[in-house]
Amino acid sequence: MYVLLYILLGLIAIFLILTLLAPKRYHVYRNVEIECSLSDVFFYLKHIKNQNDWSPWKKKDPDMKQEFFGKDGEVGFKTKWDGNKDVGSGEQEIMRIVKDEIIESELRFFKPWKSTSDAYLRVEYLGDERTKVTWGFSGKNKFPFSIFMLFFNMDTAVGKDFEEGLESLKIILEK
């Protein structure tokens, strides 16, 4: 009887320790230098529909269903998607635009699990016809999902997709 109680207390202690150690937030980003003017890069990036040309997730499911609401390139524009198991379903809404600096949006994932992330595309002037683009997203790891994140590296998992997308963006804008 006491052995069972000690085992139960030990499991509870392990669970509490994992809960305390689990990462509460995540932030993934990558950047690329593009041989194109900052204003041209920014104008292209602020239109979410253009992501279909360079997004790694569109390549993972070219037949994904999409809907668009509002005026693309403006705050409040929203796109919804429903795709295969590789892309899931969700929506993206432009929340803030600072001309020639940053486009911020909120990503709301519905499948394979519910979560909300803050995404951004930031541009930085590097000199004549050179622009640095930083693509990133961040959010909170809610309990109990946060414990899973002890064993899953979000940066590794999503970072390679960001790198692929940014390389495609570079090819498109440098044509």
Could you name the ranges where pLDDT drops below 50 across 5 or more consecutive residues?
Answer: none
The CATH topology label is Alpha-D-Glucose-1,6-Bisphosphate, Chain A, domain 4
Beginning-to-end CA distance, first to last residue = 73 Å
Strand portion: 35-45%
Radius of gyration: 20 Å
Structural class assignment:
alpha+beta
Q: Write the element-wise H/E pattern from the N-terminal end onward.
A: HEHHHEEEEEEHH
Looking at the structure, what is the overall shape? elongated
Largest sheet at a glance?
A: 7 strands, antiparallel
Biggest β-sheet: strands ordered side by side in the sheet: 1-7-6-5-4-3-2
Helix amount: 25-40%
What is the second-level CATH architecture? 2-Layer Sandwich
How many structurally independent domains? Answer: 1
- What is the CATH homologous superfamily assignment? START domain
State mean pLDDT (0 to 100 scale). 88
Number of helices: 6
CATH class: Alpha Beta
According to DSSP, the number of beta strands is 7
Commentary on this structure:
By secondary structure, the chain is an alpha+beta fold. The chain has one domain (25-173): Alpha-D-Glucose-1,6-Bisphosphate, Chain A, domain 4 (2-Layer Sandwich). Helices cover 35% and strands 37% of the residues. It has 6 helices and 7 strands, in the order αβαααββββββαα. It has helices at 2-21, 38-45, 51-54, 56-60, 145-148, 154-173, and strands spanning 25-34, 65-69, 78-82, 89-98, 102-111, 115-127, 130-140. It has a 7-stranded antiparallel beta sheet. The chain is elongated and about 75 Å long. The mean pLDDT is 88. The chain crosses the membrane at residues 6-23. This is SRPBCC family protein. Keywords: Membrane, Transmembrane, Transmembrane helix. InterPro entries: START-like_dom_sf. It comes from Seonamhaeicola marinus.
